[in-house]
Amino acid sequence: MENRAVCDTKTGEVVSELREGDRILRKESIDAFKQHNKDGRSFIKGNTAEMRKLTPLLSMNERAMIFSLMPYTAYQTCLIQYPNGKDIGLQEIIKISGMCRNTASETIRRLSAKDVLYRGRNSRNNQYFINPWIVYRGAEFNIVLSEMFKNYRILSRGGIQWKDLL
Questions:
Q1: How far, in Å, CA of 100 to CA of 10, rounded?
Q2: Interatomic CA distance for residues 55 and 8, integer angstroms
Q3: What phi and psi, each to the nearest 5 degrees, are found at residue 6?
Q4: pLDDT computed for residue 5 by the predictor
Q5: What tens digit of pLDDT does each residue of 106-139 get?
Q6: Domains in the chain: ranges and CATH
Q7: Which of 1, 8, 31, 50 is the most buried (most CB within 10 A)?
Q8: Of 151, 120, 152, 121, nearest to 135 (Cα)?
């Protein structure tokens, strides 16, 4: 890679060197971000192509569950948790979704069967993860998520399984 430098435009003096991976962030970009993110809100990414194809295949309860859980998607892990890092379990999902226990449990089971949600367990409790092909927070998928959802058929890519893309 050739050397890249930051120069003072008045003197031509090299002020700094740009190393591999460095990026220039312009003031206008920072100002635009601040304008759209005035109160520090975080954003999730929705794969609109995938959601358009998936939505007709979901029941109303399944749609409501996904929509209810989206704001609780953790950064880069897709774990459903509170902003303070506390995992959200079934009891909290019931409160968040407004569904009764049986309906929430059945909806989670159906979404898990469709590879939209993944239910795992740590040493203390169940954990729920949302499929990053549908909703995601972060810059890149982590390898654990691709393993959890490896059998998901990516509708916006002609139904190919995720594992076949790896």
A1: 68
A2: 53
A3: -105, 125
A4: 83
A5: 999 999 999 999 999 887 888 999 999 999 888 7
A6: 4-36 (no CATH), 45-164 (1.10.10.10)
A7: 50
A8: 152
